[in-house]
Amino acid sequence: MSWTGSLIITEIPISCLFILVTGGSRYVPGLGNDDSGFGADPFTGAGRYIPGSSSNESAPLGVADPFTGKGAYSSAAQRQAQTNVYFPKTDGVTFEQANAPQIIAKLKELNEGAPQEHKLSEETMESLEGLLLVVCEANSPEPPPTIQQISLLWKVSHWPEEIVFPVLDILRLAVRHAQVNESLCGEAEGVQLCNHLLSLMRPEGRPANQLLALRTLCNCFSGRHGRALLMSQRETILSRAADLAAVCNKNIHIALATLVLNYAGCLHSQPDLEAKAQCLSVASRALETVQDKEAIFRLLVALGTTVASDQTAQDLARSLGVGSQISRYSTVSEPSKVGECCQLVLKALH
Q: Which residues pair with 22 in a beta bridge?
């Protein structure tokens, strides 16, 4: 769906309108117009910087993937042939897309208006721009990030909260890179990274920062150091993330659902009932408030992945009343993946 022409807004709760005004231009966090369940946003225009927009997540499942691209599961015959292509989902779902020129333009704009003590030098800006160009492309011909660039990114990620969002967008992309993942998620620095992201995710925080912190955590799963870090901090991270289900922002809900799904994927082959119980609990709690179909779908996949081939987890899910909670989604036909996945989860619980 796209929006054109004049716009009349009526009866929209002000708490749901997250428009950040900076430097005279509107910034709407994380809303794009791609075909992955992220609806177009009527508040944005061409050329505006939207962190993490066009967020086609990279999560290959073969030819047909419910998380990516146009035409996924368009064939009924194909769906019938593959009885369960939804879960267990054990490879991480990440937020890949970005518009590097827009990120840099917004960073420069905010830097110009930043308080003197927070202004970045020309050398710092060039270093961040170089880093962004490297981490934006999986097969970039540019040299890998230097320790100096990574240290600088970490330092600038502590910019004032009202202007830090473009830096967080660079961080989101950077943690997918093996060297950055190891450097920022390693044993010494990893806890500091988690604590910083958790501070940005507090319920009273800025939605743009909440969104990008969640997406950064999701992208940390793309490296072994990041996975180890997030698993070691699971209880705290999922507890803080669960609080964001109450925020009226569908893109935050999608990121939250993706984080739960990535945890479920990592836990699938592990006999850690306590951890799986937390995944079930957070997913169930989120489903009480989440309305966006893409977020609901990812929560259903997380539930399915958690209970798949695990009788104890299935018993726990039944005791939590998960079946009755999700049964209303079994008849959803648009998108069809929601209803199909829900039916498969219900089947696993019976």
A: 25
Residue 66: pLDDT band with limits 50, 70, 90:
confident
Residues 217, 197 contacting (CB under 8 angstroms): yes
User: 152-193: per-residue pLDDT in tens?
Assistant: 999 999 999 999 999 999 999 999 999 999 999 998 899 999
Tokens 């990279």, residue?
A: 58
For 215-267, what is each residue's pLDDT tens digit? Answer: 999 999 999 999 999 999 999 999 999 999 999 999 999 999 999 999 999 99
Smallest CA-to-CA distance from 339 within 323, 350, 322, 326 is with: 326
Single pTM value for the model: 0.83
The whole-angstrom distance between residue 39's C-alpha and the CA centroid of its chain comes to 15
